[in-house]
Protein 1
Amino acid sequence: MFAMANMPAPPEPAATPLRLAGVTKRFRIAKREITALGDVHAETSPGLVTGLIGPDGAGKTTLMRLVAGLLSLDEGRIEVFGTDVSTEALKVQGMISYMPQRFGLYEDLTVQENLDLYADLNGVPQADRSASYTELLHMTGLAPFTSRLAGRLSGGMKQKLGLACTLIRPPRLLLLDEPTVGVDPVSRRELWQIVDHLVRQAGMSVLLSTAYLDEAERCDEVLLLHEGQLIGSGQPEAFTQTMAGRSFHAHAPGVPKRALQAVLTATPGVTDALIQGEAVRLVLDEGTTPETIQPPGVSGLALSPVAPRFEDRFVDLLRAQNGAKPRAALSPPPSGGSSTAMRAAIEVAHLTKRFGAFTAVDDISFTVKRGEIFGLLGANGAGKSTTFRMLCGLLPATGGQLKVDGYDLRRAAAAARGRLGYMAQKFSLYGDLSVLQNLHFFAAAYGLRGARRNERINWALSEFELAPFADATSRDLPLGFKQRLALACALMHEPDILFLDEPTSGVDPLARREFWQRINALAEGGVTVLVTTHFMDEAEYCDHLVIMAQGRILATGTSEALKHAARSSALPDPTMEDAFIALIHADSGQEQAA
Amino acid sequence: MNEPLMRLRGLIRKESLQILRDPSSIAIAFILPALLLLLFGYGVSLDARHVRLGLVVDAPSVAASSFTASFRQSPYFNPRDFANEPAAAQALAQRQIDGFLWLRSDFARKLSTGQSPPIGLYVNGIDANNARLIENYVQQSWAGWVARQAALAGVANPTPIAVEPRIWFNPAVRSRDYLVPGLIAVIMTLTGALLTALVVAREWERGTMEALMVTKVSMHEILASKIVPYFLLGMGGMVVSVLIAVFLFGVPLLGSLIVLGLASALFMLASLGMGLLISNVAKNQFVAGQIAIITTFLPAFILSGFIFDISSMPLPIRIITHIVAARYFVAILQTLFLAGTVWSVLLPNLAALLIMAVLFLGAARLTAHKRLD
C-alpha cells in the first residue's frame, strides 16, 4: 500500500480507468426515497478527458463521490483500473485525486502551506517536492502568491490552487467536480489548458463534471446525465454530428427577434429556437427540411445553415425523453406601463460602492430603456451583485446617482421598491410551505388583498403551470419548477421592472429555454428586465449588455457589437466568451501601459 | 520518514497553524477560561457578607445587648433594629432585610435559669442557599456568644458547641477556594469538547473534510491529528487556569502536581473523545456547538458537584451524574487543591476518568467512517 504512491503512474493503456456497472444510489430525505443514480453503465478510456455532463441535480457529484469511495453503493459495481471501490477504497484512493466542487482549501493557510499539507498527505518524498512545487506553481501562475493566505485568493486562483493540491502526487485518474463553476472566463480557459496539458503530457485520465454544455465540446468523450439516468455517451463530435444539417439561423424582415423566436418555438418541425445575437438559432426535428418550416404569420423567413453545437444534441435528447414541447409563451401581464414608456427605467450615473478600503463598484454609469432586457455580465466578484443590491435599495451607494423608474433611490427607496420584482439567485422562498402558501404569502407581502389577490394567485398557478403542484411542498419541487415558482412570486404585484440574479445557473437546458421564453414575453409586454449572469450564453438573450470586471465597466453594447469588436483573422466567429476574454486582455494591457 | 508519520505530521502542522491564526480557538482556549475564572473568582461568591439582619428585642437586658452586640461587630451582618415583630416581618416581606432575630421578653430570664432561651430566627427562604447560610451564621454566633459568656463567667468546661466555630465560622473558608478548582473542570470541558466539536464540524462545513477523505489518510490519523494539538491546547489552558487560581486568587494547592497533571490528561482525553463523538454526528458548527453545550458544558456546570452538591440531588439525577466525566475531575481537583494527595479519594475517581476516556475515544473511533453517508 505504501509502495503505491512512490511509483510513477504506470502507463497501462489497456486498463480502463473507470468502469461503472449498474451503479445505483438512493438517498432518503425525510421519508422520501430519491434515486440519485439509476442503473448507470459506462466505461471511460485511458489518457482522455471524460466529461460528465448534466444540469444540477443530475447526479454528477453523487457519481464523483461514489468513485472516490466517499459514498456506499446501493447496487452495482465501480472499478477504478480494475480495483473495486466498495471493497478496496483505500487502494483506489491511492490511485486517484479528487477535487470536490468546493475544494477543501484551508483558507487560513497560505498557498505554500496548503501545498505542503497535501504533499504530506500524499506521501511525496521531501526530495521530490521542490521540483514538483516549481512545476505546479508555474503551471497555475501562483508562483508570486506562495505566502498569500488561500482565503485571499480570487475565485479562479483558488480553483487553480485546489487543482495544484490534487496534482502534487500525479494520480492515475483525476476526478474534477465542476472545477469551472463561477470562475471567470479567463481562469476557466487557463484551467482547461492545465487539464489538457495533464492529459497530453502526463497521460493522466480525467473525469470532469460540468453543467456548462459548451465545455462538453472540449472533452474527448462525454457521459450525459439527466435526473440520475445516463442518456448518452460517446465522443462529443459524434453527438454534434448527428445534428448535422439541422441547425440554422433564421431571419424574417420586419419581425422582431423575440416575436420570431416565440412563433418559431411553437411551429411544428422545430426542436429548438433560441435567440442568438440578432438572429434566431433554429434546430429542426429529425427529417424535417428547412422548406417545410412555415411559421404562421411570418413571411420571407430566411434560413441559413450554421454548424451544430453540442447543446443542440442535448436538447434533442431531452426533448426525446420528455416528449412534450414547451407551451406557447407567457401572456404578458395586463399592465405594460405604456404611459411612462418614454422614461428610462433605470438610470445609473457614477455609481460607486466602497467597503472600507475595498472598492466593489467603481464609478459605473449606464441607462436601461423600458421594455429592454439588460444584462450585467461578469465573473464572480466583478461587482454585479453589489450593483444589484444598490439598485434594489438594499445597500446604500457610496457615491453617484441611482434612479429606478424615475425614483431617486437615495430619497424614495421604498417607492422604487414597490415597482420592482426581484428573483434571487438561490431559492429564497419558504421550502416548508406549499406552492400555494408561498404564493399567498408573497401576495400578502406585496399588499394584495381580496379578489385582487385571488386573481393574481390564479394567474400564477395557470400561467406557470403550477396548479398540479399547488399543494406540493416547495422544497421537493424539481429545480425548474422552483424557479418558476420564484418567478411567479416576484411577479405577484405586476412590477414594471424585474431583477433577476443569475436566474438559470444550474438548470437544465429545457428549463432554461422555458424560463427565457417567459422573460421574453414579459419584455414584449413592456416589463424592463435586468439580469446578472456569468453564463456567457445567457448574454445572447439580452438586448444590451454591460461587461463588468473588478467593479468597473469594460464595455457596453449589444451582444453582436461586443462580439464584432473581438473579431480578428484568428477568430472569425468569436463567441461571447472570446469577446469577454479579449476585453479583459485589452484592459490589463492598458493597465500595464499606464 | 514513512508515509503514515508524514501524513500525521502534515495534519498536525496544519491544525497548529489554524489554531495560531484563528482568533476564535485562541479565545475559547485561553481568553474564555481567564474570563470565567475572573467572573467566578471575583463576581460569584457563596459566602454571605453584609447580611441585612433585623433585630427585635422585646425586653432590653444586659444579656440581650451583649448578644446583639456580637452581630453589630461582625463583618457578616448589617443589623437594623425594629421596635416590634410585625414591623420586622413587614420589612422581611418587602425584602428590605434578609432575616430577623427576635429576642422575646423572657430571653434574659430563661437564660439565667439555664433554660434554652427562645430565640426566634426568621429568614427569607426565597433564596434557599442564602437562608441556610444565615441560619448557620446565626447559630454559630449564638454558640460563640454562649462560649464567650461561659468563659467570662469562669466556667471551666465550655460546651461542646464552642468547638464548632473553628470549622464553620472560619473566615478563611471562602467559597472561592472550592469554586475555582471546580471551575477548571468546566473550562477543560469547553476546550476539550466544544472546541474539538467545532473545529471538526468546520471542516465538514467548508468541504475540507471531503478533500481529506479522498487522500490515503486513515481515520486514525485524522482523529489523532485532532487529538494531539487540542490536547496540548487544553493542557495549556489548564496550566493558565491553575496559575490564575494559585497566584491571583491564592487558592492553596496542597496535592501532588504530578497527580494533577495525570488527572487533567485523563479528563482532557475524555473531553476530546466527547468532542470527536459529537462532531461525527453533527456536521455543522451550529448544531455541534449546541450539542456540545447541552451534553458536556451544562452537565459539567450543574451535575459535577462543582456548585451543586451531588449528595443532595434526587436519586435519578445522582445516577446520571455518574456518566458526567467532570464529576470525577471536580472531586479530584477539589481534593488536590484543598485536601492534598488523598489516595482513597483520588484512586476511584482516576479510575473512573480512565474508563470514561477509553469509552469516549473508543466510541469516537467506532462512529468515524471515511464516508459521507
Protein 2
Amino acid sequence: MANTESGPGNREKNFILSKKASLTPRDRVRMAMAHKEPDRVPFDFGSTSVTSIAGMAYEKLKRHLGSDSQTRIMAKQGQVAHIDEEILRKFGIDTRPLDPGVPDNWTDIEINPLTYQDEWGVQWQRPEESNSYFLLKGHFEGDENGTLEALHRFQWPDPKDPGRYRGLRDRARKLHEETDYAVVFSPRATFWQDAARIRGFGDFFSDLVTNKKYIHALLDRILEIRLEITERMMAETRGFIDVVLVSDDLGTQSGPMISMQMFEEFVKPRQKIYFEAMKKGDPDAKILYHCDGCIDVFLPHLIEIGIDGLNPVQVSARNMGDTKRLKREFGRDLFFWGGVDTGRVIPFGTRDEIFEEVKRRIDDLAPGGGYVLNFVHNIQDEVPPENVCAMFEAAMEYGWYGG
Amino acid sequence: MSRNQELTEGIIRGDRENVVRLVREDLEAGHGPVLILNDGLIPGMEKLGDQFGRGEVFIPELMAAAKAMNAAMEILRPLLEASGVEPLGKVVMGTVKGDMHDIGKNLVCMLLRGAGFEVIDLGVNTSAEQFIEALENSGARILGMSALLTTTMNRMGAIIETIRRAPFGEEVRIMVGGAPLDEDFAAKIGANGYAKDAPLAVDRFKELHAALQP
C-alpha cells in the first residue's frame, strides 16, 4: 500500500527500552512460562491466528508507523494478518509464528466468488464489502446427515498428505537456530470446534442431547485425523519450538457452552489424549490452550489433563474479568497469555484508559512470572492504530520487573 | 403425569419424537391446538429458559428443546392458522450488515418461535433497507438485530437511525444483542431493548410486544 501520509520514521517512537533488557526474547518467554520473573513481561503479537490483527486494521497500523510493506494474510477467516518483522521489532515482540504446510492434494473449492469450501467440507462466505470469511454451513447439516452412514461416506482430509509436513522441520530449525525468539507452533489442533462447524451449530448442540452416539463417532473421527497430523508435525518440529497452540471454544460471553457433565463425557477424555500426545511429541514445548468465553469452571480439569497456559483470558466474559482472582486460583498451575481487553478498552478507550488497562493486567497477572502480554483475540478492523501503539507503549512502560 | 405434563417434560428433555407423537395423539383425541400449545409446549420452553438463566442447563439443552418445539409447531401452525388464532406477535430478526455470525441470533429465533411468535428471519449481513422492507411487508413492528463484532456493532446506530426515518420508523420497537454489546450501548444508539442471553431476549421481546398492544 502506498505510503502517503507519513514518511518512515516520522512518528517513530522508541518503543524498545533495550537498555534494561538482560534476557533474549526466547528466555524471557520460557522463564515466564516456567512461572519465574524474567527481566520484563514478554509480549506476543501475531504468533498465532488468534493473537494478531485483522487485515484492514493492520494496513492502518502500518501507514501510521510509516511502513509500506505488502500485507500477507495468515488466515482467511477474520482476514488475519502476518505481522512484518520491522513492526514486531518496533514493539519488542518476543514471539514468532510457525505455521504448518498446506496439503498437496486439496485446494479449497470455490462455490461462488464469495464462498468457498474447505477440506473438512465446511463452507465459508464473506460479505461483499469485506475480505473476511465467516462460517456459512457445514457438510453434515440437516437431520438426514446426522447418521453414522453419512460419516462413513464422507471423504475426510488425508493426514498423510506430504504437503502438510514439507519444509516444516527446516522452517522450525531456522527459527530456533537463527533467531532468539520464542517459537509458537499452530498445528491447527482442534476437534470440538471442527465438529460443531462440520455438523452445523444448531444440529451439533441438539445432537449432544438427542444423538449422542453420532456425536461420539464424529468427534472420534476428527480427533483421529487431527491427532495424526499433530503427531507427525511435532515429530518434525521437536526440539525447535517453545509453545504449541491448541484451541477449542467451550465458553460463551455469559457462561460455559455445555454442562460439566457434557464436558466430562465428550470433551475431557479426548483432550486428555490430545494433550498427552503433544507432551510426548515435544516434552519441552508448553501447551497453550486457546478458549474464548467464560470457562473458569473447566480450568481445574484442563490443568489436570495437561494444559500449561490459557489464551486469551477473555476479560469481558462473565467470571473472567477479575484477573487477580484467576491468578490467585489458577496462577500456580497456569500461565496466562492475553488479557488486555478488546471488548471495549482497545477499540474505544482513551490513551489513559489503555495505559490503565495494561497496568491492571500486568499488576494482576505478572507477579511471579506466568504472564505473556497480548490483547484478547485479534485486533478488529475499526481499532485505531494509535490504540495498538498505546498498548505496546504501556506494556513497555509497566512491563519491567524489579521496578 | 398428565398429558400436558408429559408434553412439557418432552420439551424440556428435547425429546422430539415423543413430543411429536404426543401432539398427534392429543389432536386425534380431540384436544384443541391452542391448549396443547399453551398448556403443554410453552410451559416447557419457559421452564427451560429459567433453568438456563440459573446456569442449570446450557446451549445443547436449549437447542434440543427448540427443535422439539419447532417440530410440534409444524403440526400445530396450520391448525392454529385455520382456526383464526393469531401468533403472539411478529418479529423481524437479522444480523447486521458486514456481520455473518448467526448462532446466537438463530437461538433467539428458535426460542421466539417456541414462545409463540412468528419470526421473519432475514439471516446474516442485513442492511437497513432490508430490515425496513421486511417490516413493511410483514406489518411487524418489533425488530431484533444482532452483531458479534465490535466493527459491526458500531453500525447498529446508523441502521437504527435509517429505520427511524421510515414512515412507520418511530413505531418500531428495536431489540439489540450480541457479545460486544451492553445495556448502555443499546440505550446510546436508540434501541428499545437489550438482553445478554437468548432466554432473557425472549422475555424482553414479550415485554416490548405487550407494550405495543392497544
